[in-house]
């Protein structure tokens, strides 16, 4: 049987990955824009909400895999501030998936020692979901493994606006001096306070934009886009992203 060039290339990458596993730099913080659930379903003649259900399955599998690779922080873009504009049926389906996930998350990732944190404006969600969010964080707060940040009702511009409002209030109350304001003062008021900026941001689904994701934090993040739709995102896709990341020269504005 003839072996295609792509097959040889894949075999080479797998061998390279195994031989150089100890040499590869694993990013401390990775962000993932999980895109393509709806298109995945449409390609199969299924309703869009079905794609979200399969995407939720991938979310769990990939999170567990990434936690075993030495990543310390993983931020997943689950629901943006703009996603409320989607058809009501799809939004309601997403709320149902969130409820199911949150119920399972009270015990989920316990064996993996993964700490779960939610970032974004949770006040917009129904009360039962808000209660489950707080309960999930409480249950997982003492875990020592990778920290999983789930961005729900999150938007980079909204995050910056909230941070600016907090800074203005602190200046008015005399806690901060406007003249002495630093970048750290801004970072400390973001949802990701005390978390290092992402080294790598992966976007599935073939698009090449941040879509309002971690706008401030992504100033020097490496960006990697794959055509793979999120429900199909695999360990191999993640390995490809890490290999590409290791080819990059990160100069942070220097030479």
Describe what this molecule looks like in 3D.
- Helices cover 43% and strands 13% of the residues.
- It has 8 helices and 6 strands; from the N terminus they run αβααβαβαβααββα.
Task: Detail the topology: elements first, then pairings.
Layout lengths: L4 H15 L9 E5 L3 H7 L4 H20 L5 E8 L7 H18 L9 E5 L7 H14 L6 E8 L1 H17 L10 H5 L12 E4 L18 E4 L9 H13 L8
Parallel strand pairs: 1-2, 1-5, 2-4, 3-4, 5-6
Mean model confidence by pLDDT: 91
Coarse morphology: globular
Specify the biggest β-sheet.
Answer: 6 strands, parallel
Low-confidence stretches: none
What share of residues is helical? 40-55%
Task: Let me know the number of strands.
Answer: 6
Distance between the amino and carboxyl termini: 49 Å
Which sequence of strands runs across the widest sheet?
3-4-2-1-5-6
Strand content: 5-15%
Q: Could you provide a short overview of the structure?
A:
The protein is of the alpha/beta class. The protein contains 8 helices and 6 strands, in the order H-E-H-H-E-H-E-H-E-H-H-E-E-H.
Give keywords.
255 residues; alpha/beta; 6-stranded parallel sheet; 8 helices; 13% strand; globular
